[in-house]
Amino acid sequence: MLLRTICKNKWSVKSISTKKSSFNEVLTDTFGRKHNYLRVSLTERCNLRCEYCMPLKGAKLSEQSKLLSNNEIVRLVSLFAKQGVDKIRITGGEPTVKKDIIQIVESLRDIRKLKTIAMTTNGLTLTKHLVDLQRAGLNALNISLDTLQQNTYGNITRRDGRLLKRVLAGIDLALQLGFSPVKMYRVPGFAGSIGFISSMTDDYCDSCNRLRLMADGNLKACLFQNNEISLRDPLRQGASDEELLDIISNAVKDKKRKHAVAERTKSVVTVIRGGRLARNVCKASISGHHARNMCTGSGSGGGDDQPRLTHVDGRSGDARMVDVSGKRETRRTATAVAQVRLDATATRLIAEDACKKGDVLSVARLAGICAAKATWQLIPLCHQIRLDSVTVDARLDERRCRVHITATAVSTDRTGVEMECLTACSVAALTVYDMCKAVSRDMVIEHVKLLSKTGGKADYRAKGNDNYSAND
To answer: CA 103 to CA 86: how far, in whole Å?
Structure first.
């Protein structure tokens, strides 16, 4: 039998054994964890623009044709249910923005082995949809809410703060309809409960039972893993249930024992107080790549105060150019340094200005200035900016056999000039090497570093480097 598999969304065809996947093995990983909980993202869209989750102008969305259709969602969920999944949580984006969400829930209710059909929502349209959703089969609910303060809600969501009243009304309706959270702590004297989801500070990896199906049909065995396996492509190319189960099984077997997260994360706290619910939604940066579907959605995660790679798309992991159109023009400066370690002969010849290629230090200065102006052509994702001035200084330390290089760039623009001064230092140092390599190739370019930058979102000064000297 030929099995079509997906690796980073590219097909490969290979021969495998004709042995069928065992009913009990498909959703059991190599550490014995059985997965009976599937989160299903219905859409990438959201009706809020929360500052920790989505850029001000929104995120680039997939074409509708690349998202799973309702029939495809139901077929895949049915396949998972036959292998032991009995709990589904529908998410987004914001799942309630999908116009046919009632029909989707009804279709999921018809899958016999499902015991729980849950939803995570921002609660903005609950008063409009919740009664119909409950009738359709929804029997569990999470509502994400960051604050009970109207002004704060407006600041966080980048929407009118008065919309908070809608969310609170939706929460009251949910309580009236009998939706109730479980495995929780109760506070004496208050209605409701409080729970902590501390996936990083107190992980539950050893008992993890969940998988994630994204809106584009990609399967994630772990939220904190970057790799995703496409089920959409084989599904649309006529894969049988058996072939799909083999792909699912391979993805589950590839799940790691623990999630690897390089950056810190905050716990998710869910609170219902006096019939009101507030949720402090997590902000996370995961292995330099923000998690999809971290809370209610699959948009770009992470707040501006969290470490992240700005030149990497938070959803796809692809390289991208940072959008600076929303930034204001300010006067920006940056200073960088580098040094070239020489041998005694090269040092003497530079001092005597006897190198055959000419004045080493003067040529290095000019090369650095030219390089600064061409940075946007050399570094693919750098912006072309207007440079007000570039100064490059190259001086010889004869005693220590070093050439010290300092570059300062100034611009009045929307983005900083640290890359310009770093490029200037690097090329100036390379020029010194080029002009002296006929004498010796034992030279070493070292200590290329940014000393300071000002005028942007945050100023920077390298620690312990207020005075870059020959003692470095």
So the answer is: 19
Tens-binned pLDDT, residue by residue, of the chain (472 aa): 223 333 333 333 333 333 444 446 899 998 899 999 999 999 999 999 888 888 777 778 889 999 999 999 999 999 999 999 999 999 989 999 999 999 999 999 999 899 999 999 999 999 999 999 999 999 999 888 888 899 999 999 999 999 999 999 999 999 899 887 647 667 777 766 666 666 655 667 888 899 999 999 999 988 777 678 899 999 999 999 999 999 999 899 888 887 654 333 333 333 333 333 333 333 332 232 333 333 334 333 333 445 667 777 665 667 778 877 767 788 999 999 999 999 999 999 999 887 777 789 999 999 999 999 999 999 988 989 999 999 999 999 999 999 999 999 999 988 889 999 999 999 999 999 999 998 888 899 999 999 999 987 778 898 764 444 434 4
Rounded Cα gap, residues 81 and 63, in angstroms: 28
Q: Which residues pair with 210 in a beta bridge?
A: 37
Report which of 280, 318, 325, 326 is spatially closest to residue 300, judged by C-alpha positions.
318
Using CA atoms, how far residue 410 sits from 108, 338, 421, 454, in Å, is 60, 18, 9, 10
Longest CA–CA separation in the chain, Å: 90
Instruction: Characterise 217 by phi-psi region: left (phi > 0), alpha (psi -120 to 50), beta (else).
Output: left
Residue 470 burial by CB count (10 A; 0-12/13-18/19+): exposed, middle or buried? exposed
Nearest to 158 by CA among 296, 46, 286, 283: 46
Name the strand (E) or helix (H) holding 416: none
434 is catalytic: yes
Complete DSSP assignment for 34-45: B--EEEEE--S-
Q: What are the helix and strand counts (H, E) for the chain? A: 11, 17
Burial of 263 (0-12, 13-18, 19+ CB in 10 A): middle
- Asked if 371 and 407 count as a contact pair (C-beta separation under 8 A), the reply is no
80, two tokens: 């998972």
Per the CB < 8 A criterion, the answer to whether 428 and 368 are in contact is: yes
CA distance 143 to 174: 10
DSSP for residue 290: P
CB 93 within 8 A of CB 115: no
User: What DSSP string describes 149-192?
Assistant: -HHHHHHHHTS-GGGHHHHHHHHHHHHHTT----S-B--TTSSS
**Annotated active-site residue in 304, 434, 442, 459:** 434
Q: What are phi and psi of 331, to 5 degrees?
A: -80, 120
Q: What is the DSSP letter of 312?
A: B
Q: How far apart, in whole angstroms, are the C-alpha atoms of residue 328 and residue 318?
A: 26
